[in-house]
């Protein structure tokens, strides 16, 4: 079981955003989509999420052909760079939202949300409003909210991109620990080489709509597939 992307192509007008992309993302893995800005990372993530339709090819999620399924039928959770929290709702209600609209029993929601808030260490902030959290805490809330409905797949698009370097590093370690506890299949978009190398089990390097290399951080380091990968990984400081 996995996410299977087969021969996916996507154009915007005459511009080729994704050119015959095939990649297999194993279940339970933390995978980074890494590449320079404009390379097609977000487009591929949005196609996995169902927020964008591929022109050609096929997307399979955990054995189900998802190519033509709408986002709400794909059982995916998302976290974006600029996470749109409900400003007037408490942290608790923000995390509970996906469960409330699914009309889960109140006691079950309460228990699940307590569990999630503990997981992201926000128990003591449950009754605050999102505006009363720091940027890093808000992204942790976003992670809890995305995990609430027990998605098969968690998709993150530059989730820490808007934060300062120190908080980014904290959240990076933090995502790794969270993933080690929850083991949900996770695809994580970043243009930051160091972030991908430190966090991911496997890295998919994308540039100009094509996959340059797929491999573990060690494999990318020890045997870059081509000059692009070698230059892009560069000396990591
Ligand atoms: P990345 O996330 O790697 O920075 P994107 O997937 O967002 O790259 O974009 C890849 C290319 O496709 C970029 O050149 C971008 O301008 C273009 N693109 C993305 N979405 C659209 C769109 N809705 N309309 C036109 N061009 C788009
Ligand atoms: Mg992007």
UniProtKB/TrEMBL annotation:
Superkingdom is Bacteria
Q: Where is the ABC transporter domain?
A: 3-233
UniProtKB keywords:
ATP-binding, Cell membrane, Membrane, Nucleotide-binding, Sulfate transport, Translocase, Transport
Query: From the UniProt record, which GO molecular function terms apply?
Result: ATP binding
Question: Carries keyword Translocase?
Answer: yes
The name under which this protein is listed is Sulfate/molybdate ABC transporter ATP-binding protein
**Full-sequence range covered:** 1 to 237 of 321
């Amino acid at each position: 079981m996995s996410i299977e992307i087969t021969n996916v192509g996507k154009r915007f007008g005459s511009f080729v955003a994704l050119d015959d992309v095939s990649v297999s993302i194993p279940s339970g893995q933390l995978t980074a989509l890494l590449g320079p800005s404009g390379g097609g990372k977000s487009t591929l993530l949005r196609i996995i999420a169902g927020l964008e339709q591929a022109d050609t090819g096929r997307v399979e999620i955990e054995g189900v052909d998802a190519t033509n399924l709408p986002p709400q039928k794909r059982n995916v959770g998302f976290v974006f760079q600029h996470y749109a929290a409900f400003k007037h709702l408490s942290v608790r209600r923000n995390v509970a939202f996906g469960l409330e609209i699914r009309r889960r029993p109140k006691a079950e929601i309460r228990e699940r949300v307590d569990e999630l808030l503990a997981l992201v260490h926000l128990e003591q902030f449950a009754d605050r409003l999102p505006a009363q959290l720091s940027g890093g805490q808000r992204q942790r809330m976003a992670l809890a909210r995305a995990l609430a409905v027990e998605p098969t797949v968690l998709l993150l698009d530059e989730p820490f991109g808007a934060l300062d370097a120190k908080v980014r590093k904290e959240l990076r370690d933090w995502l790794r620990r969270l993933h080690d506890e929850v083991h949900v299949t996770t695809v994580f978009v970043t243009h930051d080489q160091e972030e991908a190398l430190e966090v991911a089990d496997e890295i998919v390097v994308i540039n100009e709509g094509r996959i340059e290399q797929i491999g573990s951080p060690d494999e990318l380091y020890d045997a870059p597939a081509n000059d692009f990968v070698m230059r892009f990984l560069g000396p990591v400081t």
